[in-house]
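Lecture notes, unit on protein representations.

Consider one protein chain, 331 amino acids long.
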Amino acid sequence: MNSSRLSRLVVIGAALTLGLAACSSSSTGSSSSSAAPAGAASAAVAPSGITIAMITHETPGDTYWDIIKAGAKASAAEHGITLKYSSDPDFTKQATLVQNAIDSKVNGIAMTAAGPDALKDVVGAANKAKIPVVMFDSGIDDYQRLGAMMYFGSDEYVAGQALGKKISQAGGKNTLCVIHQEGSVALEARCKGVGEGVASKNMQVNGTDDASVKASITAKLQQDPTIDYIVTMGAPLALVALDAVNTAGSKAKIATFDLNLAAAKEIKKGTIAMAVDAQPYVQGYEAVDSLWRYLTNGNDIGGGKAVLTGPSIVDASNIDLILPFAEKGTR
């Protein structure tokens, strides 16, 4: 073997050794909640030392929040962030969770504000503690007043207008708009917007009890057979409404805010007419990512205005594009 060839082999061997050593020494963030979702990049990222609390008004069983969390976890994994998620549909209890995050000295807080009045004082406490706060999903009209730096989500009123117009174009004339969480300004804004595009009446139901929701919708359909569209505020409730339509023997069509895999499959089948997708994966991702960028580079995204992630209408015209992503848990 000549000397030049021997030298090349030595260099190659050394490079391989260094590459293996680098792979074996890498590590991931310390929180399991920061793991990337299925289909995301799996490269390990060293811990950044940053802890972000995500606090929402999630209603247990609502798959919308699974998509929010998938986006948040992907961003956390990408940046080596420790992500702490907690939720409570009671706005006063949600405020307590925010205070707990402040007391634990997290580096940033990403939160929803469906009940803004209950959260004003605790957001002020976060500001006093110099913990940056961003909001997403709900609170677009209140985030600046409350003291949040940035907002990521859909304008619920505008989204409602878009859906109402779409229903009217499809021939709808008498819409029932079902609100499942009392006091939620976001849900009220949605139904108000729907009423701008098509004749609509609101109905309040208990979103924590599917049987009660089905009974209420069934009774309303039997009472008023002229209802031709039912609008729900979440994909799981759209499935309950579909069951109610069948029970009542109604010909009413279903439209819903938010999307999940089950609802996407029903759109594909034609049993749900359409969904307004606020793209929650993007909301969760950007809420975490924006805090990381602020903490590491001083960035303030949006130029003092909300960053809109919707509305994105999903119906028969584009369901073939969207369904594969719904199957991955990112739409």
